[in-house]
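Bench notes, bay 3.
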Amino acid sequence: MTGQPLAVEARRWSGNSRPALAVYLAGLTADLVGDFAWLVGLSWAAAQAGGVEAVSVVLTVGEAPRALLILLAGGVVDRVGAVRVAQSAQVGRIVVMAAISGLALTGTANVAVLAAAACLFGVLDAGRMPASASLPVLLFGRERIPALQTVIGSTSRLASVAGSALGGLVVAATGLAGAALLNLTLFAASFVSIVWLGRRLPFTPRPHPPGAGSHWAEATAGFAYAWRHRVLGLLVLTIAVLNLVATAPLNVGFALRAQQEGWGAGGLGWLTAVYSAGAGLSGLAVSVARRHLNARLALGLCALNATALLAFGAKPGLPYGLLLALALGATVGPASSLLTGLAMRETDPEVLGRVTSLMTFASFGLTPLSFPVFGLLTSAIGLVSAFALCGGAQLAVVIAVWATPVRHLGAARPLSEPA
C-alpha cells in the first residue's frame, strides 16, 4: 500500500514550527496530567464507595473498552481525520468530567455511576489515543517524528508523576468533584490547543480510504499492511515485546523487591522516582542527538535495558537497586519512544491511524496481561530468576531483530534543525 501522501502532508507547517511545537506540547501536557489525575480521583472515589473490590471493578470496566476498541478506532481516524477525532473525543471527555463533578456534588456518584463514567471514558480514549498520536506526523513531518517521539515519551512519564501528585492533593482537599473540575479545565486547555493547531492544518477526509468497508475490515487492512511491510511488522513486534517483558518487572517486580529486602514503602517510592526521572530526562537528552536517532541506538538501548533486568536483584542493597532502576528508566524510555517514532516514520499516511492504533495496543493493551504472568513466574522460580528470564527474553529479541533490515533504519532529522 504505497498511495500518494494525504493532502495534509503537502500543507504541513512549512515555516517556523516552534510555535506549533510549543502549543502541541502544552496541550499534550495538560491532557496527560488530567489523565493521571483522573485515575487517582477515580480510584479514590471507588475505594470510598465500595472498597478494594470496587476499585478493581471500576478500573477494569474502564480499561476493557479501550483495549477492545482501540484497534477499530484507527480506521475511524484514517477515514475522518486525526484532528476531528481528537477534538470530538476531547469534547466527550469534558462532558464526562462535568457530569461526574455534578454527581459528586450531589452525593450520587456511587460505584455504578463511577463504573459507567470509567467505561465511557475508556471508549473515548480508544479514539483519542490513535488520533492524538497521529497529529505530530501531520504537524511536523515524518522525518522529525523519531526525535519528537522521545520528547513525547518524556512528557508522558513526567506528566504521570505530576498528574498523580496533583490528583492526590486535589482529591484530598476537595474530593472527586474538585478533581473532576480540575480535569475538565485541563482537558479544555488541551481541546483549545487541538483547535488552534487544526485550523492551521486543514485535513481533507478520505471517504474511501484503502481497506474501506466495515470497521473490522479497515482494521485488518492496517494489520496486513504492517505485516507485509519490510520493517514495520518487526518494529511493532519489538515494541510489544519491550513493553511486555520490561513493564511487569517495573510495576510488579519493584514492589516485590522492596518487600523482600525490607525497604518498605519509602524504598519503593525511591525506586519509582529514580526510574521515572531516568526515563524522562534521558528521553529529552536523546531527542537532541543529531546523527544518531536510528534503529541501532534504539536496539542498543534495549540491550542495555535487558542487561539491567538481568542484573536487578543479583545483589542486595538499596543503593544498588536505585542504580539499576536509574539504568532501567534511562534505557527503556527513549528506546520505546524512538522505536515508535521510527515505526511512524515508515508508515504510509493513508494507514497512519490504523498502524498507530496497532502500536498503541501493543504498548498499552497487552501490558496488563504481563502482570499476572510475572507474578506466576516469581512464585514458580523466584524473583531474581523472573527478572533474569525477562531480561534474557528481551535480549534474545534484540539479537534477532539486529539481524534484520530494521537495524539499517537511518538517522532522522532532530527537532533543532529547521523544517
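Next record in the batch:
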Amino acid sequence: MYSLNNTIIACSTNLSLTSAIGIIRISGENILESIAPFISLDIRKIKNRFAHFIKIQGLNKETIDEGILLFFKGPNSYTGQDIVELQVHGNPLLLKKIIYLFESECGFSTAHEGEFTYRALKNKKMNLTQVEGLDLLIHGKSDYVINEGKSLLSGELNQLYCNLHQHFLSAKSSLEILINFTEDIDEDYAQTEFYKSIEKFKANLELLHKRVSLSGNKILKPRIVLSGRPNAGKSSFFNRLLNKNRSIVNEAAGTTRDYVSEGLFIHGNEFELIDTAGLRETEDSIESQGVEKAEDIISSCFYNIYLVDVTDITEEDVQNINKSNPDLVIINKSDLISTDSFTQPFEDYFSNFSTLPHSVEQDFDAEDFFEKINRKFNDLTASAPILLERHSDIINDLNDKIKLDLFSSSNYESFDAGIISSELLIIQTKIESLIGVLSSDQVLDNIFSNYCVGK
C-alpha cells in the first residue's frame, strides 16, 4: 500500500470546508527542483526552516494563489525526507487545483491515510508506540485520551514497556547461562537467580496489567445513549440537551427508526449523544432494524440513559431496564402525575436505580445531570487505564503466559530449561511487538487506516 520511493502530496488541513488557511504537505526527494517552474521564488534563495513568500503559478505563469513556503531538509524533518509545506488560502477549490497541478506536472502521488507518518516510522523518526500516541492526540475526545497520546508520543509509556523488556532480558539471560554454562556454575544458584529475575518481571508486568482497561473503547469514543420505549420522550430530551431541534418529535410511536447523533461537550470532554429507536416488538422490517441497531449501541455505550413515560410505565420497561442495566433512569413527563403516586406501581423497583425526574414543561437541572456523567468518566480514568486495544491485548496475553506453573518457583523440582526457553521465545515476540521492534504489515495497516490524509 505504501512506498518510500515516490514523492507524495496531500492537504493536511480540511479539504471539505472553507477555512482561512490551507496547508499542503509534500514529502520526497528533489522537491524544490520539481516545483521550481511553478513558484515565483528562485529555489536557490530558499533556506532550510525559513518562511518564504511565494506565488504559485500555472503552466502559463498565471497566479493560482500566493502564500508561504516552508522547506525542511531531510533527514532532519518529520518524515526523514525533504518536506515542503505550502500555507495558502483555505478555499477547497484552490487547494485541489494546486495539488492537481503538482500531481499532473511534477509526477507527485496522492498520499494515503497516514503515509507521512508511515515514512517517519520507516525512517526511524518515530517508533510504533509514538505513532499510536499521535493517533490518540489527533482523535482524542477528552483530556485523558489526549494526555495518554502525549505520554505515548513523548515516550513516557513506552519507557515503562522498555523497562519491562529489560527485566525480561535479565530473566532470559539467566536461563541462557543455566543452559550454556552448566559445567561452570552452580545449578541450584542459577535456577534461584532465574526465578528472582522472573519475579521482578512479574512485578513490572502486574503494574501494567492493573492499568489495562476493559472500558478502553468506551473511554476513547464515549457514547451517551438515550434508550426507552417509543414515545418515552427520548427525542425531546435529546433536543433539550443540545438546545436545538435536531431530532424529529412526533406523537406517532416509532418516529425515530434509525439513531441520530450529535457531539456534546461536558466539562471539557466531548461525548457522542445518541437518540435511538424506541425499544419494542414490531413487524415493521425497517423499524425492526432500527431496534436491533439501538440494542447494539446500548450494549457497547459509555453511559446508558433509559427514559420512561411516568404516565405509561409497563412491564416492558422493566424488562428493558433489567436487560440493559442503565446508568440513569429518567422519569419523564413527571409534571403530569402527583408525587404521592409517582411511578406507582413501580416505585420500589425504581428505587434500585439512579433516577432523575424530567419534564419539558419545567426547569431541568442540567448541571446535576452532567455531573453524573462526568463522575463516571472520572471513575473510569482514575486508574490511568491503558486505552489502546493492541497494547491491552498484548499485556493480557503476557499476564496469562507468565502465570504458567513453569514460571513459578514452586516448579523448582521439575525445572525444564528447554520448555521454559520455548515459552520465553513466545513472550519475547509479544514484548517486542509491544515496544514496536516487531510489527506485522496487518498491524501497521490497522494503525495507519485511522490516520487522516496529510499526516
